[in-house]
Amino acid sequence: MAQTVPSGDNTLLRDAIPVRKIGRVERFLGPENYRIMQGLMKTPASITGFSLVLLFVLIAVFAPLIVPPVGKDPYSIPRDGFKSDPQPMGTEWKRNVPDKPFWFAITGQEKWTHIFGTSEGQYDIFYGIIWGTRTAFYAGLIVTISTLLLGIVYGSIAAYYGGWVDMILMRIVDVLSILPGVLAALILAAILTPLIGKSTVPVMVALIAFGWMGYSRFIRADILSVRERDYILAARVVGVQDSRILFQHILPNAIFPTLILASMAIGDVVLSFAGLSFLGVGVEIGYADWGQLLSFARNWITSLNTYWYIIAWPGFFLVLFVMGWNLIGDALRDVLDPRMRGKT
Amino acid sequence: MINYIIRRLLLVPLLLFGVTILIFGMLSFLQPVERLALYMRDFPKNEKVVPALIAKYDLDKPIYVQYWNWLWGKVDETGKRDGGILFGNFGYSRSASQPVVELIQRRFPATLELTIWAVAPVVLVGIWLGVQAAVHHNGWIDQAARIFSIVGTSFPTFVFGLLMLMIFYANLQWFPPGRLSDEFSKIVESATFHRYTTLITFDALLNGRFDIFLDALRHLIMPILTLSYINWATFLRVTRGSMLETLRMEYVTTARAKGLPERDVIYKHAQPNAMLPVVTLAGFSVVGLLAGAVITETVFNYPGIGSAAVRAATSLDVVAMLGFALFDGFILIVAALVVDILYALVDPRVRLS
Predict the structure, then answer these.
(1) Closest CA to A187 of B329, B73, B227, B91
(2) CB-based contacts of B303, cutoff 8 Å, min separation 6
(3) In this structure, what are the phi and psi dihedrals at residue A311, rounded to the nearest 5 degrees?
(4) What is the tens place of the pLDDT at every residue in A142-172?
(5) Is the CB of residue A201 less than 8 Å away from at least one CB of chain B?
(6) ipTM, 2 decimals?
(7) Which residue of A has its CA nearest to B301?
(8) Residues with Cβ within 8 Å of residue A340, at least 6 apart in sequence
(9) Is the pTM of this model over 0.90?
(10) How many CB atoms sit inside 10 A of residue B108's CB?
(11) What is the rounded distance in angstroms from the CA atom of residue A235 to the CA atom of residue A229?
């Protein structure tokens, strides 16, 4: 029997117990986040989602390079004349022409044409779509973040204080949730528009006012379950302040599901915003917004077979945008759903 | 059970009170003069009269006095009541040039009719799709359903509606927008046509006019398809999830082990139990339709309560909008009560908790 001399290296140990190599990225992110990231990178659906959103981020950021702004307000779509009939794709752009963008050098183009045609009143559809991407991000992110914050603060207060405070606060949530979201937002936006003036603000305020209740219910339920854990009791025993317990111990552990919910809601918010502006509430006519562009089609329903491009292009971009966010949200839910854990 | 129903019933007045407060709250964004203008059919030209009128209707009084007047109306010395939404006095709609209550009476049957015809395609087909996706978990039906539900939730109602109009109206001329063709609406309005139910499809059958029935149905098809399409994605997701969970239960395995045919296992043992969350969803979807499918009705120019609300909103007819909100709030509160009680009847876990 040969005696094994301790050699100082642990080859034997390494061979006996297979050790997984931990890469730099995993070390940096931590095991849990790394697992989530891996999950997100694996499915074709989420990759498509991320690519779509990235594409739209690029369009929004480089809007002035793609179509240089015309006039004082870049968000008002330039009009090529005042004729009412939509003009087909590829018609020459005569009045209010933007400057030459960088990509004319690549395509060898000399003059601007209406790439996607013009809508009723000669609003250029391509311009509206490109600059409308900014409006979509702007409205989607502001409304989602505001509703999220409002919902979290409200729900945490209700859950933390409990008792009759919780009772009253949650009944208020019940009352606000009775009316269908679109109708409630429509009414509030219509009342606010004359007071604030035509802009994106009334619709965003209306969507925020009737959009936060879901988050507050969600975070409340999660806080109520986290509150009963032993480590909260431990913190209380040690004598940690109430606010510190809430913000440092309970919230970080309860907030995650609500954040997923928010990531899935961005698409919905953009849809509601476009819907309201399609119905004619909120922004001024000719504002670069997808819903607004689509609303021009409402007067041409009988001749949509000729003027198909006035709904096809704005509709296509709106669907892709929302789908991008929905795909990400879907993938996130699959990765983060506790019941799915360990199954990927 | 009775305990639960009583507790649930007690919530109703509270919610109704809350909704009136909410709607009155929206109204109080406006200045007294603006609120006066809302409720006066002919706004006085003489500006000196305005302060007197504001004082007469207590528009300068504290907010709770105004709320009470709005709710209960103002009774003068002769006992004549002025206003008061509790007595059905919702005010006068400027955009429709008629009292709001009459406007609702005229518009609601159309929405009711659409809802009645849309229930089966929306709910039953939605559930069927979900069950199929779950039964063929990860099969091609499931994958197709998954893609459909993602595309479905991303596709805005109005884009879908416009596309339908483009294909089925502008190109094929199959299904027109609106509620009835012109030649038939004259007949329906005339005295010889008896309006038993105010729902055109049923009235047409009762009058023996099959051609009118078919015409009304032809107008309903596009809105129904649109409503089905936007609701299917949700039904699919909820039914599929619930069904998958149920199929993993041990009693399902037991049923299979007993040698029951797969068809019985799925449709007799699993499905009824998987339907619980779907029942709630179905209840609220139907009620949502009843409250007026705002965008769908507008796109198809369907003269229901939803398109009337949009018209009121775009012409800044605040009185009519708030009337619709009150009416919808009332319907939704009552319907939520019914859904909750039905749910408790179906699921013993609810009433025991």
Answers:
(1) B329
(2) B107, B110, B178, B179, B297
(3) -105, -30
(4) 999 999 999 999 998 898 888 899 989 988 8
(5) no
(6) 0.83
(7) A298
(8) A334
(9) no
(10) 18
(11) 10
Decide if A319 and B169 are in contact by the 8 Å CB cutoff: no
β-strand partners of B75 = B81
Instruction: State pLDDT tens for residues B70-115.
Output: 777 777 667 666 667 777 777 777 777 888 888 888 888 888 888 8
Residue A87 contacts residue A124 (beta carbons within 8 Å): no
Query: Which residue ranges form the domains of chain B, and what is each CATH number?
Result: 2-93 (no CATH), 98-352 (1.10.3720.10)
Could you say which residues from 21 to 80 on chain B have a Cβ atom under 8 Å away from some Cβ of chain A?
21-22, 26-27, 29-30
Cα dist. B326→B284, B317, B335 in Å?
18, 15, 14
- Amino acid A197 reads G
Helical segments of chain A, H only = 11-16, 24-29, 31-42, 44-61, 63-66, 104-107, 125-161, 163-178, 181-196, 201-209, 213-227, 230-238, 242-244, 251-254, 256-279, 290-295, 309-336
| CB spacing of A193 vs B309 below 8 angstroms | no
Sign of CA dihedral B64, B65, B71, B72: positive
Q: Which residues of B touch A178 (CB under 8 A)?
A: 15, 18-19, 329, 332-333, 336
Residue-wise DSSP of A257-304: HHHHHHHHHHHHHHHHHHHHHHHT-SSPTTBS-HHHHHHGGGGGGGGT
Q: How far is CA B25 from the centre of its chain?
A: 23
Q: What letter does residue B269 receive in the DSSP assignment?
A: I
The verdict on A221 touching B (C-beta cutoff 8 Å) is no
Using CB atoms within 10 Å of the CB of residue B113, give its burial: 0 to 12 exposed, 13 to 18 middle, 19+ buried: buried
C-alpha closest to that of A158 among A149, A150, A169, A147: A169
Q: Which residue in B155, B169, B325 is closest to A187 by CB distance? A: B325
Sole residue written with tokens 């509790």: B86
Among the partner residues A184, A193, A323, nearest to B154 by beta-carbon distance: A323
| Neighbouring C-beta atoms of residue B172, cutoff 10 Å | 10
Measured CA to CA, the distance from residue B244 to residue B185 in angstroms comes to: 49
Which residue in B107, B154, B294, B297 has the most chain A C-beta atoms within 10 A of its own C-beta, making it the best mutation to test that interface?
A: B154
- Nearest beta carbon to residue B321 from set A190, A297, A318: A190
pLDDT (0 to 100) of residue B43: 65
**CA B194 from chain center: how many Å?**
27
CB contacts < 8 A, A to B, total: 147
Contact map slice: B 238-277 vs A, CB within 8 A: none
Contact at CB, A326 and B316, closer than 8 angstroms: no
How far apart are alpha carbons A257 and A319 in whole angstroms?
26
Q: Minimal CA–CA distance to B149: which of A207, A40, A329?
A: A329
